[in-house]
């Protein structure tokens, strides 16, 4: 049959396999087995120690610190997904959480050793360690850190409980039944969420979802304006430059419509929690404008051939936006996550939606504005390239 001999039919299996490979890598390559690694956690160890009869000066907080941080060469430290950093005190640790520098803060108070030692003398209230979980930084990663810390403190509790009971047994001290729960769990761990994502936040993925919608809205706007520009026939280079500036102005209006419209739908119709609607809508509009200018600049030079770039970028980046950087393969972080514009839009929206301090907004604003400005320059520069059709027509006229 002639149909089976046609080139398109023969190449179809190869093309289908290539498409499946590309989009399989895009949608699953970085997310099929996300393994947390080097998740930053802070430790504020303020325990001043205590004097215990028969033991002298002790510092139980220092013992816990050594247990949590571990020896660098130990197998446990090599397998742990947590990367510990010591801070001076609780206040400085909380400030770092607000600046998205860590997923959790563990605080061992000044009176920890004294309170733990008092359990030996009949105190019924065990000492407490405070754990602050920075949920807004990334909900999945913060939950993983919280679970890891829970397991660590269960082990620590078991060791201290065994030590206390052995000491009481060695001194032949009878234990009041009312003190048994405290001796079985001599350390309380009080966990508190900071920068929470709330109940209506797409499980903390709202920044990534809003960014993806803004990207697609910008893509549609770019295509509509691109085809309109195709019908624009400038009579001079100055008129061509003016048309490109007008294209950018139209993009700015469309971006405002997209930014405020997307957030109005998410907030008013879908119930997304938006603490600062106007500021968030403005930032989303700026992100959409950056996307519009970037796409317009590429299409001004490549034409419709730029479309596959935008679609592939969307499919490759989309799944990555909801994951913590520490859960991504190193190749993905280096080759994609480190430079892609959508990432900076997500970071800015995360600060506006979950943090609200403005401490993490400067870098996304600078990067997005710089990309927009650079794209605008490239777009306007396309007015000064030599049109191929005009050059061909000129050659034919000269030959005639």
From TrEMBL:
Its main location: membrane. It is a multi-pass membrane protein. It comes from the Bacteria. InterPro entries: DUF3533, T7SS_ABC-Transporter. This is DUF3533 domain-containing protein. Keywords: Membrane, Transmembrane, Transmembrane helix. Residues 37-355 form the DUF3533 domain. GO terms for cellular component: membrane. It is found in: Membrane. Pfam families: DUF3533. The chain crosses the membrane at residues 9-29, 213-232, 244-266, 272-294, 301-324, 365-384.
């Amino acid at each position: 049959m002639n149909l089976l001999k046609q080139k398109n039919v023969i190449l179809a299996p190869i093309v289908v396999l290539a498409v499946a490979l590309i989009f399989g890598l895009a949608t699953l390559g970085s997310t099929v087995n996300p393994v947390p690694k080097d998740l930053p956690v802070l430790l504020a160890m303020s325990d001043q120690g205590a004097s215990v009869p028969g033991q002298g000066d002790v510092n139980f907080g220092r013992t816990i610190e050594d247990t949590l941080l571990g020896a660098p060469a130990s197998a446990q430290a090599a397998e742990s997904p947590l990367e510990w950093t010591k801070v001076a005190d609780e206040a400085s640790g909380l400030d770092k959480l607000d600046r998205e520098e860590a997923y959790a803060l563990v605080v061992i108070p000044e009176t920890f050793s004294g309170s733990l030692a008092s359990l030996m003398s009949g105190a019924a209230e065990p000492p407490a360690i405070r754990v602050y979980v920075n949920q807004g930084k990334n909900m999945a990663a913060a939950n993983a850190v919280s679970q890891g810390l829970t397991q660590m403190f269960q082990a620590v509790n078991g060791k201290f409980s065994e030590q206390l009971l052995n000491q009481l047994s060695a001194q032949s001290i009878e234990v009041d039944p009312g003190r048994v729960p405290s001796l079985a769990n001599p350390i309380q761990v009080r966990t508190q969420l900071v920068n929470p994502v709330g109940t209506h936040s797409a499980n903390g993925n709202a920044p990534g979802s809003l960014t993806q919608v803004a990207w697609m809205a910008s893509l549609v706007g770019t295509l509509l304006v691109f085809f309109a520009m195709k019908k624009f026939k400038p009579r001079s280079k100055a008129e061509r430059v003016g048309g490109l500036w007008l294209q950018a102005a139209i993009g700015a209006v469309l971006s405002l419509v997209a930014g405020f419209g997307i957030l109005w739908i998410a907030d008013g119709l879908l119930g997304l929690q938006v603490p600062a609607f106007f500021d968030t809508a403005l930032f989303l509009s700026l992100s959409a404008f950056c996307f519009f200018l970037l796409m317009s600049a590429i299409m001004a030079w490549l034409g419709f051939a730029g479309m596959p770039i935008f679609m592939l970028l969307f499919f490759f980046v989309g799944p990555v936006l909801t994951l913590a950087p520490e859960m991504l393969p190193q190749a993905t972080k280096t080759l994609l996550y480190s430079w892609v514009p959508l990432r900076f839009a997500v970071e800015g929206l995360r600060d506006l939606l979950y943090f609200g301090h403005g401490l993490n907004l400067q870098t996304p604003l600078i990067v997005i504005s710089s990309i927009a400005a650079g794209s605008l320059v490239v777009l306007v520069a396309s007015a000064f390239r030599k049109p191929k059709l005009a050059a061909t027509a000129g050659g034919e006229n000269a030959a005639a």
